[in-house]
Amino acid sequence: MATVPLKDELDIVIPTIRNLDFLEMWRPFFEQYHLIIVQDGDPSKTIKVPDGFDYELYNRNDINKILGPRASCISFKDSACRCFGYMVSKKKYIFTIDDDCFVAKDPSGKDINALEQHIKNLLCPSTPYFFNTLYDPFRDGADFVRGYPFSLREGVSTAVSHGLWLNIPDYDAPTQLVKPLERNTRYVDTVLTIPKGTLFPMCGMNLAFDRDLIGPAMYFGLMGDGQPIGRYDDMWAGWCCKVICDHLGLGIKTGLPYIYHSKASNPFVNLKKEYNGIFWQEEIIPFFQQMNLSKESTTVQKCYVEMAKQVNEKLGKIDPYFVKLADAMVTWIEAWDELNPPTKDSAKATNAASK
C-alpha cells in the first residue's frame, strides 16, 4: 500500500487472553498502525506479539493503576475489557477486532482489507432519515434514486461502521445449539445506513467508530467475572450508541467489510453467560425503543449520563444488576473525562454533531 489511510489518526484495539499469532495474517493491513492490546485474565501471564508491530499492552494491573477505584467499571474475564483501549487511545478513529478473526476473501478470491473498508464507511456520510433503495449512495457506481429528497442528500456524519463475518455466524447459544453446522458463506456486497429509530444487534468483533463523535458511548458494560450476564457487552453498547446517534443526528453503517470468524465458542458455556440476557432483552429493547433524551443532552457524555439515570429508574426494577450497571455507566464517563479532558476540537465536533 503506497498510502496508509488515517495512519496517524487510527488505533486498533484487540482484547486477548493468548499470544497474538493471528496478527501475522493481518500484517500487510495492520503493520503501519498503532495497536492497543488489552490483556484479559491473569496479568502475570506473558502475551507474545509478533515482531514489527507498534503496540502498547495493558493488563489488569495497568487498568487498576490508571483508573484507581474507577477500574471497577471495566469488566474482567470478558472481552468487554476492550473498551478500556477506547478510553486510553488518543486517536480520532478506533478499529476493534477479536483474536479469532482472520482475513476473509471476496468472491474473486482476493484478500479483503477490512480496515480500509471501515475507513471508507466512516469517511462517507450516512443517510438515516430516508432509505435509499440502492443502499449506500456514496459508493462507487451508486447514487440517490429518483424520489430521494434533495434536502437530505448531504447526509450526516458517520459515527459507527459495523462489519460482518464469514464462516462462523454471530449467533446466540440457542441458535448455535439447533444449527451447530451452519456457516455463513453469503458475501453480500452492500453497505447501508441503519434507519433512525431502528435498533440493531451490534457485534464487537469487526467494528470501527469515530471516537470523537461517539467514543464515550462505546462502553461495553459490566460483564464476565462476578456479573450475572455475559456476551451482551457489544449489544449493550450498540443499543446505547444507536439511541444517542439518533438523538445527536449521527449515522451508523452496517455491511461490508467481512472478516473470517474462525472458531465457534462453546454453546453450553455461552448459554450460561447469556441465560439472563435472553429474558432481560425482551424488556431492555422496548426500553431503548421508547427512550427519549432531553434537549439539554447536547454531548455524548450528557446523553450517556441521562441514559444511566433511566437505566437505574426503569431497568433497576428487573434486577439489581441494572442499578449496578447504571452506576458503572456514570463511573465510565467520569473516567473517560479524566483521561480525555475536553479540547477545543472535541467541543467543535460535539457542537457540529448536535446541530
From TrEMBL:
Keywords: Cell wall biogenesis/degradation, Glycoprotein, Golgi apparatus, Isomerase. Pfam families: RGP. Its EC number is 5.4.99.30. InterPro entries: Nucleotide-diphossugar_trans, RGP, RGP_fam. Glycans are attached at R146. Its main location: Golgi. Probable UDP-L-arabinose mutase involved in the biosynthesis of cell wall non-cellulosic polysaccharides. One of its GO terms (biological process) is UDP-L-arabinose metabolic process. It catalyses: UDP-beta-L-arabinofuranose = UDP-beta-L-arabinopyranose. One of its GO terms (cellular component) is plant-type cell wall. The record marks R146, R153 as: Required for activity. It is found in: Golgi apparatus. Belongs to the RGP family. It is an enzyme of class 5 (isomerase). It comes from the Eukaryota. This is UDP-arabinopyranose mutase. It comes from Solanum pinnatisectum (tansyleaf nightshade). GO terms for molecular function: UDP-arabinopyranose mutase activity.
